[in-house]
Design a protein that fits this description.
It comes from Sphingobacterium psychroaquaticum. By secondary structure, the chain is an all-alpha fold. It has 2 domains: about 190 residues, no CATH class; about 80 residues, no CATH class. Helix 1 packs parallel to helix 3 and helix 8 packs across helix 10. The mean pLDDT is about 85.
């Protein structure tokens, strides 16, 4: 089952990415993508019902992790299709419209907060009730749509998982739209930022990015990268190579800044999930 699902998901994502490259007309492209997703779901459903599951563990994994990946894509592209086809004219009207769509996502989050916490903390204590077919519990905030779905291919909460994943993607899409409009309306906001952290921290960051090969496919010279950071963030790095040697020879926590970045990001992600 895992191999079949992974191949189906990979095949679908490849097809979607190719469509993104080939077509400039967004509405038409989304229509084609939605049909691809529906076809993929149909194939997986036929395979699943014919083959069945070898164990409850496999069934839970499918309905908690595999099916929601594809359904979330359907939720996302269908939402984007509606947003784009119903978008009003005029910059102010569009901003109000997009902000209303964001509020809808927030309401869904508020109404399903307990399940958000359960899913995002990788809790498994209720999986047998949430992700096994025919094993629903009316007390666990069931959507009425569940009883109208095909119960041979649905559990009480697999759609909620897909909704969480899809809503995250929709939120990013809307926020990008709003950000791009703000930049268009206020070009003067594109100002130079000043680095207010330590010089050691930015040098640690520069070398980590350089060794990761993220600039010009790894072909950018470290001196060029350092100069770019100096210009963009208004900082004089001085003898940055000497500072790097000191970092490399640091016996205790040589990647102090990068470790702090990771810890802060994870903390903020967790806090946002609880909003």
């Amino acid at each position: 089952m895992d191999e079949f699902c992974n191949k189906a998901i990979k095949k679908l994502e490849t097809a979607i990415n190719e469509l993104k490259l080939e077509s400039d007309y967004q509405i038409m492209r989304i229509e084609v993508i939605i049909n691809l997703i529906i076809r993929s779901l149909t194939d997986i459903k036929e395979y699943t019902l014919k083959r069945g599951f070898k164990s409850e563990k496999e069934e839970i994994r499918f309905f908690k992790h595999q099916k929601p990946i594809i359904v979330s894509k359907l939720i996302y592209y269908h939402a984007i299709y509606k947003i784009e086809t119903k978008k009003p004219h005029g910059e102010k009207s569009i901003k109000k419209y997009l902000n209303r769509e964001l509020k809808k996502l927030k309401r869904y989050f508020d109404n399903n907060l307990d399940f958000y916490k359960y899913y995002r903390t990788n809790n498994t204590s209720l999986d047998e009730k949430l992700f096994l077919r025919g094993n629903h519990d009316i007390k666990l905030c069931l959507d009425t749509g569940y009883f109208q779905s095909d119960l041979s291919f649905s559990t009480s909460h697999d759609y909620k998982v897909a909704k969480i994943i899809g809503n995250d993607l929709i939120q990013v899409y809307i926020e990008d739209q709003l950000y791009n409009k703000d930049q268009k309306d206020n070009p003067k906001t594109l100002i130079k930022l000043n680095w207010t952290g330590s010089k050691v921290a930015i040098i640690e960051l520069i070398y980590s990015l350089h060794y990761q090969g993220v600039f010009d496919n790894g072909n950018a010279d470290i001196r060029l990268i350092a100069k770019y950071f100096e210009d963009v963030f208004n900082i004089d790095l001085g003898n940055f190579y000497q500072t790097y040697l000191e970092l490399r020879n640091r016996k205790m926590n040589p990647t102090k800044f990068l470790n702090a970045l990771r810890e802060t990001l994870i903390k903020k992600m967790d806090e946002k999930n609880e909003i």
